[in-house]
């Protein structure tokens, strides 16, 4: 069986330096939302937010305002973490922020406790989702952010007759691309909120069409907001000393040499993220290399995002495949973690293999590009809005049809060193142009200003 790895294996001589590096990363453990908004489509009611001049903090107008954040859950998945990042950004300018988690397990959960503790330490108030305190906060808040489509269930379940009073000040932040989220019980109030914020143009268009065709409802004013990289992550990505230390440590913990080639997929392990097809492509690439008798360093696949408690059946399938195909010496499984910087510092290529409609956006993609890594991605969803095929990475089809093209792309980047490095450098430049925290700060501020303005205007249900 492929070995379970975690980068927290200690190396006594280097541990003080590792601790120092980790200390500088402490605020990067939870990633920050950013935005880069593209073309304008007034017919589709998808707005362009243009670049504005530099200010000290464009969110400063949110000082002393009360914002209620409603999350469907609190976990290590993308949606809740993004909302928590927004909470911290608002707190940094003096906003009063209240957090509500609509769905919480009855038993104590260490992850939830840790994340709530982190928010409390940063001044975010955490309320019970269904109490009178939550209703009172919603009524007097300046802004209510519903995170993900599923959070819509909270409105009727808790606010009840107060729903019409709250809808005009709701910003609905949507990250989903899967069809089962299109249920009227979730999104029936969507047309009446002040605005919707979606992570990519592909997802926005999908929601616009799907809500009209399947549910017979119209989207509200919709803002396409690309994510971006925090200053903390960029500091590590641009620090050659930190990267070298992390690279050496992670590779040693995985049992691979410094000269070996590492291809990594960094997502929560699930069928929709395509780890199974990635491993099939990786095996096929090893076969191609043997058939062509290519002379090159040993290749390894790293699957970061393992959680045997969450996806036991699928994880067992992955590990069985590795054993059956006799590639266990080349494949490494790493537990799910918030701190991906060490792995980005240690690998050579990121594989973004999300299936079906692809990623809504794909934060890990721009994080990898910040580390000057080329990206091998599926030609679907938000990945197409990030990766420039042939310039910052190489794209392949979704599904089984994409296995062989991905295998060939793996071989290309394994054997063409200059091309691999050039793609990585181009990706870094693209991040600097479009996907930084400063881009987010300006654009998210303009979205919030428009939504707050909408909240002041008369609203007819």
From TrEMBL:
<dbReference type="Pfam" id="PF16994">
    <property type="entry name" value="Glyco_trans_4_5"/>
</dbReference>
<feature type="domain" description="Glycosyl transferase family 1">
    <location>
        <begin position="248"/>
        <end position="430"/>
    </location>
</feature>
<dbReference type="GO" id="GO:0016757">
    <property type="term" value="F:glycosyltransferase activity"/>
</dbReference>
<dbReference type="InterPro" id="IPR001296">
    <property type="entry name" value="Glyco_trans_1"/>
</dbReference>
<keyword id="KW-0328">Glycosyltransferase</keyword>
<keyword id="KW-0808">Transferase</keyword>
<dbReference type="Pfam" id="PF00534">
    <property type="entry name" value="Glycos_transf_1"/>
</dbReference>
<dbReference type="InterPro" id="IPR041693">
    <property type="entry name" value="Glyco_trans_4_5"/>
</dbReference>
<protein>
    <recommendedName>
        <fullName>Glycosyl transferase family 1 domain-containing protein</fullName>
    </recommendedName>
</protein>
